[in-house]
Design brief:
The chain has 70 residues and is an all-alpha fold. It is 80% helix and 0% strand. It contains three helices and no strands. The longest helix is centred in the last third of the chain and has 33 residues. The radius of gyration is 15 Å and the shape is elongated.
Amino acid sequence: MNDSAKSLPTCDPRERLLEAAKLVEDAAYDLASSHSSGLVSELIVIAAEMDRIAKVIAPADRLQDEGVKT
C-alpha cells in the first residue's frame, strides 16, 4: 500500500477530509461488483460520515481563525 495521504496536497483539514471521503466512496463503488453489499454499504456510510464531519468542523476552523486575527 502506498502512502497516499502524504501525496495529498497540503490544505485545510476540511478539504483533506472531503477528499478522503470521496476516495472511500469511489472505492466502495469499485468494490461493488466483487464484494458483499454489506461491505459496500458500510463504506458508503463511512464516506457520508466523513463528509458530515467535514461540514461540521468547517465553522469551528473559521471561528478559531477569526479569534487569532482579533
